[in-house]
């Protein structure tokens, strides 16, 4: 997984600008302190509070409380007046927030941190013009910012690939146990058992197989419907992802229904047939006993 540089801790006035994005991670945060102080000198009433929040956020960052740093730096960002004079302060706060989100992800593995870091770095990249006046230097630092952004995007792509692999795995289906009908010899006495229990069991298993068949049909309809995305806007990525997820679910249901229905219907029908045969044998044996019974007599 790509690694990114830590957030800044070392002082430099923003008027001197940042000389290289490779050292930006060591300069950005502390550059804000004199910048916020300059804003205070310009009679910005919110500047002292913003500077205090920034310092507290820096302490949180240095002690690995990245979520706390994110909260304080976000409040400091909101307090800085959105004037052209403060554009560079806001740009550097964006960079600090992006770094804090990346570090927070390393601790809790919450993908939302990477997505927020990506958006913040994109905003920082688009505001580099307020930090660099020299075109050559601006081009170099833009390239470095693009490389930093690409690292975050690669981490996001890796996470999405893992999630897709999990979604595509079909659920494990264990086939129901096959009940083998007992091949008992026909009984012709009072201890004989009829085939009624087998018929009842076969009917229950057949009904369950039919239910799974319905599940398979519903899954097939879901999967077929999910293939049609003509009603969705090309830019509505969330809706498209949801439609594709529905299609994968439908495919899984269709697979489970087809396998389960085939096994259960076959088993149920076999049980019913076996029960019917046993009933016929039972009736033939009982009829034979009734026929022989009256003719048996003993004489003394």
UniProtKB/TrEMBL annotation:
Xref: InterPro entries: TPR-like_helical_dom_sf
Spans through the membrane: 252-274
Keywords: Membrane, Signal, Transmembrane, Transmembrane helix
Signal sequence region: 1-42
Bias-annotated ranges (Basic and acidic residues): 180-193
Residue ranges of the region described as Disordered: 161-193
Protein name: Tetratricopeptide repeat protein
Organism of provenance: Enhygromyxa salina
């Amino acid at each position: 997984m790509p690694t990114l540089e830590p957030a800044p801790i070392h002082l430099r006035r923003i008027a001197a600008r940042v000389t290289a994005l490779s050292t930006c991670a060591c300069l950005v945060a502390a550059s804000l302190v004199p910048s916020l102080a300059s804003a205070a000198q310009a009679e910005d009433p919110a500047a002292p509070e913003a500077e205090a929040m920034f310092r507290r956020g820096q302490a949180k960052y240095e002690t690995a409380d990245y979520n706390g740093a994110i909260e304080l730096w976000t409040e400091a960002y909101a307090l800085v007046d959105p004037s052209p004079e403060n554009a560079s302060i806001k740009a550097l706060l964006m960079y600090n927030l992006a770094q804090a989100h990346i570090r927070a992800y390393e601790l809790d593995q919450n993908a939302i941190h990477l997505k927020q870091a990506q958006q913040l770095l994109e905003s920082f990249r688009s505001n580099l013009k307020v930090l660099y006046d020299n075109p050559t230097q601006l081009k170099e630092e833009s390239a470095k910012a693009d490389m930093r952004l690409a690292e975050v995007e690669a981490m996001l792509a890796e996470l999405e690939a893992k999630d897709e692999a999990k979604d595509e795995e079909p659920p494990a289906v264990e086939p129901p146990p096959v009940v083998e009908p007992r091949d008992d010899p026909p009984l012709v006495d009072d201890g004989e058992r009829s085939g009624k229990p087998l018929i009842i069991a076969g009917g229950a298993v057949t009904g369950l197989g039919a239910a799974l068949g319905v599940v398979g049909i519903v899954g097939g309809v879901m999967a077929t419907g999910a293939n049609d995305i003509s009603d969705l806007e090309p830019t509505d990525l969330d809706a498209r992802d949801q439609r594709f997820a529905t299609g994968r679910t439908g495919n899984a249901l269709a697979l489970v229904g087809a396998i389960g229905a085939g096994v259960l219907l076959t088993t149920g029908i076999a049980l019913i047939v076996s029960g019917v045969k046993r009933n016929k044998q039972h009736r033939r044996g009982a009829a034979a006993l009734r026929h022989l019974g009256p003719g048996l007599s003993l004489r003394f």
